[in-house]
Amino acid sequence: MPSKKYSQHLCVYCRAKHSTPTADHIFAREFFLIPDRGSLPKAPCCGECGAEKSKDEHYLTAVLPFGGLHSGARENLTTMVPKRLARNKKLHQELAVGMRISEVGKPTVVPLDTSRLERLFERITVGLVWHHWECYLPATHRVEAALLSPHGEAFFDSLFAMPPKERAFANLGNGTIEYAGARSHGEETFSIWRYRVYGGLQMTGDIDAPNVTSHGIGCMTASNGFFERNPFKSHVR
Ligand SMILES: [Zn+2]
User: Fold this and answer.
1) Residues 19 and 131 sit within 8 Å (Cβ to Cβ)
2) Which among 208, 215, 209 is positioned nearest to 147, based on CA atoms?
3) Distance from the CA of 19 to the center of ligand 1, in angstroms?
4) Mean of all residue pLDDT scores within the chain
5) What is the full per-residue pLDDT of the chain (237 aa) written as tens digits?
6) Full-prediction pTM beyond 0.90?
7) 80 by DSSP, 3-state: which?
8) Which own/partner contact pairs does 85-94 have at CB distance under 8 Å and 24+ positions apart?
9) How far is the CA of 51 from the centre of ligand 1 (A)?
10) How far is the CA of 46 from the centre of ligand 1 (A)?
11) Which end of the chain is more exposed for a tag (fewer CB within 10 A), N or C?
């Protein structure tokens, strides 16, 4: 585990500036109920990258509890989300438009900007690669995230069944967020990650087909060339 004096380390996200002394909670504390916020993983992070990341965190900690299957999501929704929405009028209006759909007899559907979800989990993955393996992603590499379709889940099952060099697991906040990561023998900066948020999210892009759901989020770190040869997002979505 790296030294916890974060300001000695470069920011994991830009790799250019030094971290603030307080660093970054890789998973925003607001995803968790208050008793579950102790000892969450952190990574070195500069002020600018922390501010950028927190924009997506404010959005997603208000929206994702609507789709959660976990009891913590329901409690978060009733106790904490109303305060977040009161502070964010624009988001409140956006969700209210989606919520009206539930009044005509369909399941509660709120609009989700999946590009923001994927961007946040790309940053989370960069943080976890450092947290578990003291590794910065080199400039020749990148991370891609995608909401996993059933086909994508099966593809990730097959990737996780391959013998890895190292694995990482955590269950944070009694199932509020669970993740698994693995990296290969051949290339240390090649890694795969799968996340379950709030016990799996009921997510669908089509309100007329609510049974087509995506429960997990998959991420991969690899060289830019690898992604050019193997389009990840289109393969697993
Ligand atoms: Zn930075």
Assistant:
1) no
2) 215
3) 7
4) 85
5) 555 689 999 999 999 999 999 999 999 999 999 999 988 999 999 999 999 999 999 999 988 887 777 788 878 888 888 888 888 878 777 776 554 444 444 555 667 788 899 999 999 999 999 999 989 999 999 999 998 888 899 999 999 998 878 999 999 998 899 999 999 766 778 999 999 988 877 665 555 555 556 678 999 999 999 999 998 888 888
6) no
7) coil
8) 88/58, 88/62, 91/59, 91/62, 91/63
9) 9
10) 4
11) N
Distance 136 CA to ligand 1 centre (A): 12
CA 132 to CA 101: how far, in whole Å? 42
CA of 17 to the centre of ligand 1 (A): 6
Q: Do residues 53 and 123 make contact, with C-beta atoms less than 8 angstroms apart? A: yes
DSSP string, 49-71: HHHHHHHHHHHHHHHGGGGB-SH
- Compute the distance between CA of residue 108 and CA of residue 86 in angstroms, rounded to an integer: 20
Q: Contact at 8 Å (CB) between 138 and 129?
A: no
Cβ-contact 216, 194 below 8 angstroms: yes
Phi and psi at 193, nearest 5°, equal -140, 140
**The residue type at 169:** F
Question: Do 173 and 196 touch, CB atoms closer than 8 A?
Answer: no
In total, the chain counts a number of residues equal to 237
Q: Please report, as a single letter, which amino acid is at residue 72.
A: G
| CA 231 to ligand 1 centroid distance, Å | 27
Q: For tokens 């590499």, name the residue.
A: 141
